[in-house]
Structure formats: C-alpha cells, structure tokens
Amino acid sequence: MSNFYTDIRFLKGVGEKRAQHLYSLGIDTIGALLRYYPRGYEDFSNIKQIFDCSADEKVCVKARIVTPITEHVIRKNMTLYKFTAIDGTAQMQVTIFNNKYLANRLHEGSEYLFLGKMQAGTFLPAMSSPEIREVGSTGIAPIYPASKNMTSAAIGKLVKTALGGCEIEDVLPESIKNKYKLCDLRTAIENIHFPKSEEALARAKQHLVFEELFVLRTGLMLLKNKRRIKSPFVFVNDYTGDYIKSLPFEMTGAQKRVISECVSDMASGRVMNRLVQGDVGCGKTAVAAALMYHTAKSGFQAAIMAPTEILAEQHYKSLCESLKNTDIKCVLITGSLKKSEKQRAKEMLLSGEAQIAVGTHALISGDVTFKNLALVITDEQHRFGVSQRAELSSKGMRPHTLVMSATPIPRTLGLIIYGDLDISIIDEYPRGRQQIENYCVESGLRQRVFGYIKKHLDEGRQGYIVCPMVEENEELDIKSAEEYFAKIKDNEFKNYSVGLLHGKMKPKEKETVMRAFKDGEIGLLVCTTVIEVGIDVPNAAIMVIENAERFGLSQLHQLRGRIGRGQYKSTCIFISDYKSGTTADRLNVIKQNNDGFKIADEDLRLRGPGDFLGSRQHGLPQLKIADIYADNDVLRLTGMAAAALLENDPKLTNDESKNLRQEIIKMYKKLNEN
Fold first, then answer.
1. pTM of the entire structure?
2. Is a pLDDT exceeding 90 seen at residue 455?
3. Which domains does the chain show, CATH number per domain?
C-alpha cells in the first residue's frame, strides 16, 4: 500500500513539530490519519430559516452578517465577539467566545452557514459559539477526537490533503466485497470523513465495520491454526474417570463435559490450547486437578500457576488431600518458601520424582526445570501477562496449555478476546452452593448495616467491607479503605478483630493479612478489590461494598463470589446513593441476579466492551469503528466469511489476499510469512 504506511511527518503541511502532536493522538502514518475516524458529524445540509427556528433547537441557518463585528473584553482571558446576521426572514444575534482567529476571518456583508443551538434572546433570537462554515461547504462535516495542539478542523484539513495524494488499496479480497455487496476502501474512507450524503456515510461505515471485524476474526483463526501444532505428548488412556470416582462429591455434568473436551484435545496428537471459563464457585479447580492426575498417571508432569501465594497454597493442600491414596507426588514452589524446601522441590521436578508442581510466578524462574512437562495450567489467567504464561510453557517441549478464568465473558466478546483459544464453559454449580441474598441500600442506613455485620460476627462468621480506593478522595466522596479502617476499628467495631488489605501494601504484608483472615484471626476485613482473587474462606458469610456505583457489574460479581463458599447463608449489601439512571439500573441487575454470564451480558450492554478489552493482556488491537454489542450480526457474518476464505486459502497466499495478509501481520505482529 505504498505511501499508506509513510510516516506522517512527510505529509504536506505536517513537519516535525506537528508530527509530534499527531503522534500523541496515535497518528504515526498517513494511513493511520486516514483511519482516524470522526467521533461524530455536524450536518450543514439541512438549512432552516431563522423565523422557523424554535428555542433550544440545534439548527443550521444560512445568513449574512449585517453589522460590524465588535469586541468586548468581559474579564481577563474572556473576550466576546458579537454581530448580527440576517437571512431574509429574521435577524439573529451571534456571539463568539475567545476566538479572535475566527472573528478575523468573518466579514460584514458576507454570507455564512451557522450551526448551533438557537436561543431566545432579549430582543433577537441568538446563537452562542456556533460552528461557522463558508456557504460553499454545505454537507456533513466531521468532528474528530482532538487535542489542545491539534483541533478537529486542523485534522480534517490534513485528512483532505492525505486523500488527495494517497494510494488506497482494498484490504478485503474482491470475492468478499462482491459477496457482501461492499463498496471499495477508497470510497469508504472518503465518505467516513466527508460523506456526500447520509446514505454514503452508512455505506462507508458498513465497509469499515465489516473490514475491521473480518481482519480481526481472520487473524485470530490463523493464530489458532498456527497453534495447532503437533504434540510430543499424546495421551492414549483416559485416567480421569478414576480420579472422579475417588472424589467425596459428585461432579456436575458441566465439569465432566469440560474434562472430556480437554482429554480429547490431549489425545488428538495436537497441542491443546483451551480456556476453561466458569462462574465463581463452579468447580474449575476440580477440573484442573482431574487433568493433572490424568497427566501424572500417563507418565508426564503438570504445573499450575496461581496469582497469589495463598491461592497456590490452597491448590496445593487440596491436591495433596485428593492424591493422598495415590503414588503421585506434588510440590509447592512460591517466593516465601525456605531455600532448602524450594531446592528439594526443584530437585524432585528435575528428576521426575514429583509429577505435579503448584506455585506462583516463582515457577517460571530460570532454575526451575522439569523432566517432562506435558500440561501447563494458569489459574485466574487475566492476572498474568502473555509473556508469563509463555515462560511457563517454555519449561516443557510444546506442553498442552489450559487457562482458567472466573470472569464470565459474554460469548459475543469471547469470540474476540479469546478467539485464538478453544473455549470450554462450566455453566453448572455444584450441589450445596449457597445462593447469595443481595440488597442495595443508601449510605444513610450504614449504621443498620454495621449492626447486621456484628450479628454475623457474633455468630462466629466472618465478613468483608470493600472500598473502591486506598486514599481519601474528597471531590468524589469515595470511601477510603485506610480512613474507613481507622474509623471503624476504634468506634463501631472496637470490640472486634478488624484487618486492612489493599494493593499498595507490600506482598508479605498482604500475605500475612490474608492468611490471618483465612485462619479466623481476623473477623472483619476492610479491603479494596485486591480480594477479587486469592481468598477462599468458607466461613465468610457477609460482604458490604461501599460506593458500589464505582465498580463494573462483572467486578461486583467477582467480589461477591468471595462469600457463599461454605455452608452458611450469605448476604451481600451494596451501598450507593444513586436512585435513578443507568447506575441504578446496573445495581438493580446485580441485586436481582447471581448468574455471572447474564450479568456480563448486561455489563456489556450498559457499559460497552471497554472494561473487558481493557483488562485483557492479550495484545489485541483496539477497535476503531466497530461496536461489539451493536455490530453482533456483523461479527457473526465475518466469522463465517473468514472461515470460508481460510478453507480455500489457508495461509492467505492467493493474490487477492495479499493486502489482507499484510494487514494481519501488521496488526498482530505474531504472524510471519510462513
């Protein structure tokens, strides 16, 4: 695509200084400028007469300036420019704020287009700070995400320059464009910036949304296909049934189904790359244990990496308990282990004496070596970066990989976030799992809430109070964990054992507090979202979440999942003073629903995909024009189109696919010419 990828500083009218301003907006090439789509549009095409305009109506009028443009200094840094304009039906008063450059460009006696909100003035209708254009520029004008140094108008001017001299070749293969009746890319880019009509704008958006999702889906399918490499670990026999029979509880049908899917992968001769997704408390750990048992009985080694020491210890203890009547040996490797204990564990892994390793990121340190690592599992995978998971996998020769997540992702979004993995979903709860009662209350009822917490503590239960921030924020009136803790431990809860936990504490301090809470030495834990992962305390039966409106629905659900893990009836109380609007609607969803997948769907609908994509350490590109929720049908179509194309052209080597291939290589930087 020749100059499409030329550095933006070489575009006429840019230069070194302006290039720096464009770089800060993410515009580094001429192509990136053309792909810098408007955030909205001003419609100068629907012109109304002043006499027919209503107050507070946003309109476009064509009028002639009939008075001199006068300057009025109101105060320091505030200058107004005023004049009167007429269109033959009526006059209007126009005021421009602090824009001498614009005022100097306007001339008495000339006609202009004025776009703005009409106001009822004292003597005449009025417009304040309207958008003003030359009469010849009728049509739909773009509004760009701008900065102090690069205005929307300046960006638009550069886009026009780029369009005049840039070669734009289609990314989509001709066969795809024809099948889905899409315009060419140049037409789409021209009309997304400067649409000739509403219909032309719709056609442009249709092409660009389809193209963006098609490139994404095709790239992910290629990535998944590249990962379907031959495995040196082929599991002939299925030992998971023996493990399932040995358990003191009955596994759910969903757990058995997911185990079967993984066993099938591990016997296929290809490397498994699978995500096990399930709601909080659905039994993912038991699935992981069955697969590690299966690996060990097959003569190989397995490793599971957890994000915190306390979670790693929980996995280790439960595995040791379930394997106590077998000849399988399990070792623990964490940062706080004694040097002699860690050395012994490493020796057992190197010799093959230990078949299962449980640990934190300490597992990926350079001196941890396995004899024949065949299965790698990461728990709460969103807490690990891609490189950390890859480092653990590099401890073996192409081991099978399983990642587990307790953050339900809507299927629509999962196609993009996890498009390079096979997905298994555990959608059943084990028997006996407690349903949590939910309440939303105003802050004025906080003392009654405290009384309810004390009732639980007096009965021997434990609880959490979650605050959204560590330090006080007076402007937003957000409860601080530190201030909150200091206040209640000396007042309302002075006769109780209260602990504090937040992300700014040192790792050893956090581990100490979490362990004290798990052991029952702390009855009430004041904390931030650091408890989202890593504490399994069956005795915890109450949670209070302050400023609940500050959290996403999925995060509230994750936090709530810390209670209801034992035999005791559990309660979650959301404190918020929002009584109406979207915020209240969101809290109502969490109050009425304990199903994480339904909550995730609502979160996506109400807040959009930003939270999900933003928290994903996957290296996936941000979507520029497509909307995962609104463009769900297009997402489905592009999936079918990508699959059909790759069936006929698996490596995109056909001539019509060359630009698509280049775009995918550029986008992912993970695919090479092979």
1. 0.66
2. yes
3. 46-138 (2.40.50.140), 436-593 (3.40.50.300)
